[in-house]
Structure formats: structure tokens, C-alpha cells
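Notes to self, Glutamate--tRNA ligase:
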Amino acid sequence: MNTLRDKVMEAALRNAVEHGGKAVAKAVLSKILGSDPALRQRVAEVKQVVEEVVEEVNSMEPEAQKRVLAEKFGAQEPLRHRDVGETRLPPPLPGAVEGKVVTRLPPEPSGYMHLGHALAGLINEHYARRYGGKLWLRFEDTNPRKARLEFYESFRKGYRWLGIEWDFEKNNSDDMEKYYMYAERMIRQGFLYPCFCSPEEMHRQRSQGIGCTHRSLVGEAGLDVWEKALNRMYGEGEVSFRLVGEVSSPNTALRDPVMFRIVDHPHPLKGREYIVWPTYDFAAAVQDALCGVTHVLRSSEFAFRDELQNMIRGILGLSNPVYVEFSRFEFRGATTSKREIRSLIEEKVVSGWDDPRLSTIEAVKRRGILPQAIREFTLTYAGVTQAKKTFDWSLLHSINRKHLDPVTRRLWFVASPVKLRLINHKRAQVEVPYHPSTNMGKRLIKTGDTLYISGLDAENIGVGEAFRLKLLANVKMVEKGADEVIGEVIDGPPIREGKIIQWVPEDNRRVKVIRYGSLFAEDGSVDRESLWVEEGLAEAAVESVAFEEVVQFERYGFVRRDSPHELRFVYCHD
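result:
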């Protein structure tokens, strides 16, 4: 899928499927120009291809659109259009008892919250409330080297922003003494042993399915090493404590995994109080039992760990939860991997955890995505399924648009402005409502013989062509120059067949809009040119937009004010 026409065809098909079988050319053009900054230099060519392809797509039957999208472009689950109020609740929870269900939100505070956490969190909350149960917020913070206070707060803020309320909160690091008690019991009973092998040797043993020579160090011999480790007589990497598992198991997670290791690094909550820390699997296995979790709902990437965590609880005499796994949520052109995001930040590919090209909650908030849109998307489209899903952002945008449209003000803006001088135009003023159907007030826009229109409109209107300046006048283009164009006002009723052009008056404000495309190209490579700034002019009322408020720049798209001091906005979507 290398050609421009292929890209346009996929975008047009997706747009049509999401909008009841009819693609919108303007939306497709915006999508294509946003996905590849280089195409902005070929606007006329791209526009022609878009118009041709949209006409072709709109001539297809809706089922044919879905079939072509699936067969040619690999859409794994062609999306169907749903009305705003339509919902599709997740299926019943296996083994659920009314009033007894306990689920959990188990974030690791090693990075900022992202959409994957949000979707999983909403599913866990949904089931807890659906069955009159309880919900835990439990931070999996037993890796001191990764945990940071700002990341704990990121999750609290993110869940609250989504409207998720939890009944209990704790940190895995709060129960270190209990982990130690269980560890000593397991060493005495021959289920845990100290290992002095290097990571490389340990990897060799596990990959080949052979036992470690230290496996016999259980009982008193193992406890002696354990006490020395607790008393800081070993350094980081010198010893670890491994489960006596099943070294020949086809599930490699059972092949004597590390349960405790030395981490000589201060913890954000515990300081240097502890040096021997449990691994994720040990802490999670114990905590799910201590918290009385009845159902573990999580992405299927953890499925191979279920057997291991059940083994740990079986040794300790703790109860097992019911596991419900669903596919990991992915968005086209983005990543939910905290490790990958950290790398992008360190390499200065992105500006931070809130870079609008990312899928973190801070990033999608900058993009004007509403929490109710994420909730609707999760419960209606994502759901609980093991079928791999890669969602296009346009689906979330279409849901968000339905929520934004009734509550956001409209303002006038032109990108890459070109001066338009009018002949035969008398000074006038137009009264413009902030919203076409909701009473949000009005403003007066005064005009003289100089206005500004977008560079794209100026380019696409030919000399001699008649067009309509929105709510103002009919105009015929009489001259086009490098720096300005000249139009003559013509009498008659408003033109209805020709172009209706957005404009701003001479009393305007210079505005910057942060635009972005997909951070990752189709081949998985990072597109370092996927963010740019588009400059334009807006009417004076743009100064009334509050910091973080979302408005719609008419015939351009929804934008969110990104600075309390500058007229800088982040583009949301069309």
C-alpha cells in the first residue's frame, strides 16, 4: 500500500464505514494531509485524488465498503456505524455473584497513564458496579528503580478524570513484611532457593529447560542466605531467589522464575528501608489474594503468567481469582508501551509524556478527547474480546465529535491566510451566533474592504469564479497575485451552488495551531516530521477562549487552547 491513491482509498473507506456509508471529502483530505506533512506541498493533486476516490467509495454499497476495507487493507473487524445512544455492553462475567465481585486497577507507577490503562480501568470498573461489588486501586510498585511519585498521581488524576471511583487504595510496597514472611515459609518448605547465577546463565538454563545447581539450597541453607541478603551482605546482582518451578514446562514462566532480587535504589515511598524486593509475579499473586480479588480482568499479554501466579498461591494456600483476558488495545500509528515512550522522550523524538502524538491520558486531553467519549468507545466498541484489535483514531474522534458538537463554541479562523481586497464593498457588520442550534450568545464581526481567506481557498478559486463569503456577500475573483487576491462584490441573492468561503476581518488575531500525524509510519519506523505548527488568523473573539477550552474553528476542525498566555491551540480532529 504505497501509492497516494491507496492511502486515500483506505481513509475514504474507513470514513464511509464510520458515517453510514458516505465518506466526507473534506474529512478524508484533512486525514491524508495530517498523516503525511510532505503532502501539504501537493494540496491540489491530493484534493483531486480525494474527490475522485470519495466519489468511487460513495457509489459502493455499505457492505461492499466493509468487504473492500477488510480484504484490501486488512481491517480485522470492519466497524459499523452506530448511533450516539446505541451501546453494546460487555458480556456477563463468568462466575460472578451479585455483591461479591471484587476487581482491581493495578497500575505500575513507572510512567504516565495511557489509553490502554484507561480502557482496562473502565472495564474493571464496569463489572464491579454492574454486580454491586468493590474496586481496588493498587499500585504495583515493587521496582524502586522505576517508580516515581509523579506517576502515582498521574494514575489517580487519570482515573478520576475518566469518572472512575475506587473503594480501596493501597501500594504493593506496603506489605513488604508479609512478602518476607511468605518467602521464609517457601524457603523452609523447599519452594524457594537462592541463586548466584548471572542473568545470562539464568537465561540459558530457562531457555534450555535445565535446573540450576543452586536448587538444593533450601531449608536452613537457603534461610541463611536470605538473612544475609536482608542484612545487606550481598550487592545488587549477586544473589536472587528463585521459585522451584517446573524447569521442563512448555510454559517458560514456570521455569524457576526469580521471585525476589536485590534492588539497591531508594523507593519513592519507602526510601532505603528495604533492599530485597519481590518481582511483579510474586507481589501480584499475593496481593490479589490479600485484596480478595475475585476476577482479574486484563490484557491477554499476561495470560502466560496466570499459571505461575496460581502456582504461587497454591504453595501459600491462598485462593485464586477467575481470569478474564482481552486483547491489548492498540491505536494505529501510536504506542502504549511505557518503555518505548520513555525511549522516544530520551531521544527527543517527542517533547514529553503529553506530546499529542502519544496515547497517554495527558496527550489525549491536550487533543480535546473527552472522558465520556473514551468511556463510550470502551463499552461500545472495544469490549472484552481476545480478537486482536488495532483501532483507527478516527473512530474515537467520531465519538468525541458527537459529544463536543453540542457544547462547543464556533469561531472563525483561516489557515495560511491570504489578503482579499474587495471592490464595491461597503463597510458592514454581521451578527454571528457562537453555535447554530444551542444558545451560546452572539458576537458582531465588522468588515471593511480588506479581509483574509485561507491560502487553500485562494489557490482553489479561479479568476472569474464566483463564490460566497459566509454571511456577507457574493464575490467574483478578478485578480490573483502572490501576496493578495482581489474580488468584486456582486449583487444578487446568496450563491448556493458555488463555494462558501470562510473569512476573518482586518481586526483579527494571529494564532498558532499544533498539528500532528501518526508518530509511526506503516513500516513501523518513527516519523520525526509528524508534528508541525500551522499559522493562521482568527477573529478577535478568539481571545475569549479559556485555557484548555475546546472550540471549533469553522470549516477547519475542533481545537483546544494549549497556553494561558499565547493564542496557541492543539488540533483535535475535524
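- Residues 76-86 have pLDDT under 50 and may be disordered.
- The two ends are 25 Å apart (CA to CA).
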